Structures are given as structure tokens and as C-alpha cells.
Sequence to fold (234 residues):
Amino acid sequence: MDEIKQIEAKHDDEIEIDLGELFHLLLQKMWIIILCLIVGAALAFGGTKFVVTPQYSASSIIYILTKTTTVTSLADIQMGAQLTVDFEILAKSRTVVEEVIETLDLDTTYEELLGQITTENPTGTRMLELTVTDPDPEMAKTISNALADATADRVADVMNSDKPNIVDRAVKPAKPSSPSMIKNVAIGALAGAFLAIAVVVIRFLLNDTVQTEEDIRKYLNLNTLAAVPLEKRR
Fold:
């Protein structure tokens, strides 16, 4: 009896994972995993559809170089790259952003509007793309165009040069830029399935009771007959 207790104590101190058994257990619980996957996808769909406010993005594009700037040498090209950085800083400057707020009579602060603005210089170009994101697609377009005009005016004033040309004015976006329904549903489905798998695995690891004849032979070093009470053998 003492030997059995020692074996049981040794078993309690060891963590042994039978991958084959775990795999079969996951197969048995597959219906739960699939159910959680469907529930997670449904919750993500509902949250994206009815809770999250869609955002619309509109972009206008400014040409970095002006009539007084030519690209005839490597130095000029480098200067164009530096102008891109200057334009980006000016586009997000307080003077420009507050001018847009005043021109459009927006009920917002500099910090709030600045959070809606992103600037990007497409690789290999001397263009600056000004993108504004807003829940109202018409307002996103209006702010982006006003920002392009204010930026061009500010550049001409600060750099004492010609006003840069606006290559492309923003148009009203037809579809929201975020959230992505497909992406959110996929994340929700994966999260639901992962949660179900995690629960099954944790329950499996924490369950250290002797359940099968194989467990009796493995952990107690007894054959099945020896584990059966004497009165049940008769």
C-alpha cells in the first residue's frame, strides 16, 4: 500500500502530456470548437455592424515641387525629398489645421482634427497625399480639400515660393475605410475557436485522475485484475 501511495505521489508531481490522447480529445470536442467559432464570428459581425461607427477616408494630393524648383541634378532630387518632409510638417502644423477649422467652421479642436489627418509620400514620387478620416464621407472630402488648399498657401508663404499645385482633389468616398467586416469576423471566429481549444487543453492538463486501464498500468504499475476489488472478482 505504501508503494502505491509513493507511485501516486510521484505521478502527482509529474506532468506528462500524451499528444495522441490530447489530439483525440480535441477531435471529440470538435463540435464545441466549431460552435465557439461560429459564436465568435457572429459576435464580431454584430459588433462591427451595429456598434462600431464606420469611418470614411478621402485623400487629396499635392505636387511637392513648384515652378521655382527644378530637378536637374542629384542635389535637386535630394532637395525634393527634403521638401516632402517639410510639406508634411507644414500640413500638420497648428496654423494650417486651425485655418481649416476656421474656414469650415468645424466644432472640433486642433488635437482632434490632427488625429483625423494622415500624410504619406508614395515611394519614388514627389507627391504628398493628405488623407482625412471622418464618420461623414462628405465631411472627409471637404476637410481633405480644405487642408490641401491651406497647406499649399502655407508652403508658398513660408518658403517664399510659388504655390504648389494640387494634383488630385478629394472625392466623396463610396465605401468606409474601416472597420473591415471580413477581418473582424475572421478575428472573432479565430478567437472563439482558440478559447474553446484553450479550455479543453487546460481541463485535460488539470485532470490527473486515473480513468482507464492504461492509466492503471502506467501510473500504479498494476494489472487490471489487481485493481478490481476482491468481491467483484468472484
User: Anything to note?
Assistant: The first strand starts at residue 56 and ends at 63.
